[in-house]
UniProtKB/TrEMBL annotation:
Keyword presence, Plastid: no
Annotated pathway: Carbohydrate degradation; pentose phosphate pathway; D-ribulose 5-phosphate from D-glucose 6-phosphate (oxidative stage): step 3/3
Protein name: 6-phosphogluconate dehydrogenase, decarboxylating
Family that this chain belongs to: Belongs to the 6-phosphogluconate dehydrogenase family.
Catalytic activity: 6-phospho-D-gluconate + NADP(+) = D-ribulose 5-phosphate + CO2 + NADPH
Subunit organization: Homodimer.
Gene encoding the protein: gndA
Protein task: Catalyzes the oxidative decarboxylation of 6-phosphogluconate to ribulose 5-phosphate and CO(2), with concomitant reduction of NADP to NADPH.
Protein's GO biological process: D-gluconate metabolic process; pentose-phosphate shunt
Binding, substrate: N104, S130, G131, G132, H187, N188, Y192, K262, R289, R448, H454
Any one Pfam family match given in the protein's UniProt record, by short name: 6PGD
EC numbers on record: 1.1.1.44
């Protein structure tokens, strides 16, 4: 029987769709899943692609079914299951074979696995895949970490299965070991911020202006034709328009306001903190999901505080909608600037030399945060070398100069009406702090010196100094 070109382990949501995508692009693929009935069902339901799928009931069978050197994609639950699969694969693979972990691994695990496999003759690639089920099936965004040579060996198939933006493949080699999974993690962090800010604007429209889902949906639909054009805005309109078959009500109204998370948002925040790079909009978004999960406490607090008499947002509706659109855009600009700044910091810290314009380019299609705006980011990075923060590029300065007044008005009015907009207000505070040449940390330095003799720098002389605190210090 003709051997397969590639193998895949894990036929869950992502793995099964990725395998069909690979088969559809003309590649024969051997597949294995821990629960073997799933493997058989997958083959049986693969329709006209079935001929290119080789179902395997053991890893020995999988290895035998693939032509060496064998590329094998692992698409299972991140964490220990990946280590288990790698350990078992080591028993059946041989030198030059390539193990590709395509799940949402913590990039620190990827660095460890990369090192562990270095001496075995096997090659390891840590690959971030974004786009959910639909992306995996028809073209995801693919972020690859490993040696450049190993990427070259799988580039053809990855290019074939990836999303395309105006003909350009949304797949790229980004750096060694954990680079791909790190970039995927920050992609998800930005995604958290994007989604949270959209939800905050929805909250202002719902609770501030008193609009129902059917009235809000066209607002997002209209915004999707302008500067906010993106997949997340598009699906928000669709979500708001959908009805629950059971009750006939808008489905969004019967969904519990408690959001889940698997960890990539939290990892983004932890890594940003480790690197000492502020990512406040992402932090606010992660914290908002945590707060959302405290449903019982929130309900008790609502009762405890009662009606604070804050009222709704009033005024000219068209002007308010224009402000909300621009405010969301300004928040997005700040959040993306933060996400890319974190990647810049990590690039230096881990010696990856991350190609920022390429990252922006491979996010333009296939992934969850795909948007027209990423094209602007790619241009901003391409126009200048060594961009430390996107907020310092001419394009971003122009955008923020135009959009910040609306963000200010929306945050202020939401605060007055008692509507939480944590990510938007964090984005605004970050912007204001970032552009403040003389901040307020002089006072913090004085306080630190007062109670802990930590010393401070002066504006008029070099060196470390102490204040005249006397016996109070
Ligand atoms: P699913 O829950 O749909 O599938 C999980 C897969 O992992 C199944 O094939 C399951 O096998 C296998 N698995 C779980 N535990 C083990 C184990 N201990 N040993 C062997 N196999 C195991 O998950 P997804 O397809 O959604 O996710 C897979 C990976 O892709 C995760 O890392 C996820 O974070 C990532 N990802 C998911 C996205 C999404 O939108 N869903 C988007 C991008 C990345 P079995 O059938 O036997 O249970």
């Amino acid at each position: 029987m003709e051997q397969a070109e590639i193998g895949l382990i894990g036929l869950g949501t992502m793995g099964s769709n990725l395998a069909l995508n690979i088969a559809e692009k003309g590649h024969r693929i051997a597949v294995f899943n821990r629960t073997t009935s799933r493997t058989d069902a997958f083959k049986a339901n693969a329709g006209e692609l079935s001929d290119r799928i080789v179902p395997c009931h053991s890893l020995q069978e999988l290895a035998a079914a693939i032509r060496p050197p064998r590329p094998v994609i692992i698409m299972v639950l991140a964490g220990t299951p990946v280590d288990e699969q790698i350990a078992q694969l080591r028993e059946v693979l041989s030198a030059n074979d390539i193990i590709i972990d395509a799940g949402n691994a913590n990039f620190r695990d990827t660095i460890r696995r990369f090192k562990e496999l270095e001496s075995t003759g096997l090659t390891f690639i840590g690959m971030g895949v974004s786009g959910g089920e639909e992306g995996a099936r028809h073209g995801p965004s693919i972020m690859v970490g490993g040696t450049e040579e190993s990427y070259n060996r799988v580039e053809k198939v990855l290019t074939a299965i990836s999303a395309k933006y105006k003909g350009e493949a949304c797949s790229a080699w980004l750096g060694t070991d954990g680079a791909g999974h790190f970039v995927k993690t920050i992609h998800n962090g930005i995604e958290y911020a994007d989604m949270q800010m959209i939800a905050e604007i929805y909250g202002v429209l719902r609770d501030g202006l008193g609009l129902n889902p059917k009235e809000i949906a066209p607002v997002f639909d209209t915004w999707n034709t302008g500067r906010l054009n993106s997949y997340l805005i598009e699906i928000t309109a669709k979500v708001l328009n959908a009805d629950d078959p059971k009750t006939g009500k808008p489905v969004v109204e019967i969904i519990l306001d408690r959001a889940g998370q698997k960890g990539t948002g939290k990892w983004s925040v932890i890594e940003a903190q480790q690197l000492g790079i502020p990512a406040t909009a992402i932090e606010a978004a992660v914290a908002a999901r945590v707060l959302s999960s405290l449903k019982t406490e929130r309900e008790a607090a609502e009762k405890a505080y009662g009606d604070l008499g804050l009222g709704r947002i009033s005024g000219d509706k068209d002007a308010l909608l224009a402000d909300l659109e621009l405010a969301l855009f300004a928040g997005k600009v700040a959040a993306y600037a933060q996400g890319f700044a974190v990647m810049s910091g990590a690039s230096q810290q881990f010696g990856w030399d991350l190609p920022m314009p390429t990252i922006a380019k491979i996010w333009r299609a296939g992934c969850i945060i795909r948007s027209q705006f990423l094209d602007t980011i790619a241009e901003a990075f391409s126009a200048e070398d060594n961009v430390a923060n996107l907020l310092m590029t001419p394009a971003f300065i122009a955008m923020m100069k135009e959009a910040h007044p609306a963000l200010r008005r929306v945050v202020a009015r939401a605060a007055e009406a008692g509507l939480p907009v944590p990510a938007l207000s964090s984005a605004l505070a970050y912007f204001d702090a970032y552009r403040q040449g003389r901040g307020t940390s002089n006072l913090i330095q004085a306080q630190r010196d007062f109670f802990g003799a930590h010393g401070f720098e002066r504006i008029d002389a070099e060196g470390a100094f102490h204040g005249p605190w006397g016996s109070n210090g």
